[in-house]
Amino acid sequence: MSINEDRNLSTTIELFPSRIIIVLRVHKSYRKVDCVVTENVAVYHPDWNDKSSLDGLEVFFVSPNSPASLESFDFIVVLGGAMLTCPKEMCQIEAVRRERELFNALESGSVVCATFMWNNDPLSFRIANRIGIGLQGWDLTAAIEVKRSEFLPFIKRFGVAGARFYSPTRTTEYEFDDVICRSRDGVLFGFVKKVGRGVLILLACEVELRQYHDSDFMKEFLGALIKSSKAYGTKVQYRVPRFVESYRFPNETVITSKIAELQKELAQRENSLAKYQKLKEILWFRDDELVDSAIGYFNEIGIRTKRDEIREEDFWLIEANKETVIVEVKGLDRNLTRPHISQLDEHRGAREKPDDFPALLIVNSFNKANSLKEKDEPISPNEIKKAAQMDILLMRTLDLCNAYYLIEKGSLDAATLLKLIKAEKGWLYVSTFGFEIKNKG
Q1: How many Å apart are CA 385 and CA 80, to the nearest integer?
Q2: Cα–Cα distance between 262 and 82 in angstroms, integer?
């Protein structure tokens, strides 16, 4: 099949996650891969660094721990999940930095190809959010349509699954500049967005993180991805030669200097925003990441926490080195149910605490919601009644975010919030206007 065929060509193939290659060999030595491309290429990789010769072409691997900037490269590949090796305390700062570098590169005419997986990678979400796109976990069990034949070899080999894109405003696919692949019912798994003078290519694919460390796998994966992206990019992109940018008119130099100052100020403000992105992780994280995020929330507002090795519970709130509240955290696709409440009561008993010992159950409910309206679903009366009977306090992660909102407004403080958590039972409902204790079914 020629890549010069009509751009509206639609090819239907059957793809299932079970057909995706699993590579068992893991190499920890330095790796080299082969690909054919003519630009100055960078690959944002979980932990590979520095240059590698690929059939005579130098490819620069940049990891989250590398100081190298992505802005100077003509062609950039961002591997989904690359940031997951970054220390959690630095993750948001790194995400802000790399997002800025990527979009500066796009503005100057680079091609950026980003692969996405459902793995809580903050850089992936920042890239998607920057262009107004939502990202959700998705299990592909149906046929897809490949709209761009340049990507057909890559999709046949590696599939598209694990995540899907959607428009938060529910607009049509024609809001994008081009569609790479989608399901027959319109679920989007790959598309293209022109940014500045550059091209942003986004593909959802299902790859295990450990496969990034296998040289044979990466040779085939990167080779196919770069070849497909390069074939597509040359059709839609016009790049101004770099030497043209070196010539400056007098007023152009003044404007360029002012832009540099504004970009520096913007970078500082974006770093300040990283704290809020970190706080909002409790609205979409799951499992251990959600627990860590909840712990980070309380530490941020000045309430001390403790997490021990027994872990019947998830963690404790402490005062003067004394455990004062037992806390459990749940990430759910639906609403809270009675068994979740009973489980916290069992853990409280297992730690030989009295039945009225303060217990807080935090739930990130409706984790696959597409909007705040869907997220803001109340806890059901039966569960509220059950919690009140068992001397347990319920809070949604949205309640915690709203509590921080009130703290910033000055209408609530951390000491009052802790006092409520220790004294109340039922549901501590919090909105951006205030809070209310609901303890009746």
Answers
A1: 43
A2: 29
Position 237 confidence tier, pLDDT thresholds 50, 70, 90 = low
Q: How many CB atoms lie within 10 A of CB 432?
A: 11
Compute φ and ψ for 78, nearest 5 degrees: -110, 115
Judge if 218 and 352 occupy the same domain: no
Q: Does 15 have pLDDT greater than 80?
A: no
- Specify the CATH number for the domain of residue 378: 3.40.91.30
pLDDT score of 243: 77
Could you tell me the two tokens for 270?
Answer: 């974006």
Structure tokens at 358: 């303060």
Cα–Cα nearest to 161, from 15, 44, 46: 15
User: In terms of domains, do 308 and 372 share one?
Assistant: yes
Task: Give the domain range for residue 352.
Answer: 280-438
Average pLDDT, the chain: 80
Residue at 228 is within a domain = yes
Q: What pLDDT is recorded for position 33?
A: 32
CATH number at residue 28: 3.40.50
> Count of domains in the chain?
2
Report the alpha-carbon distance of residue 125 to residue 136 in Å, rounded: 10
- Per-residue pLDDT at 172: 45
pLDDT of residue 155: 85
Cβ-Cβ contacts under 8 Å for 5 (sequence gap 6 or more): 149
pTM of the model: 0.55
Same domain, 235 and 284: no
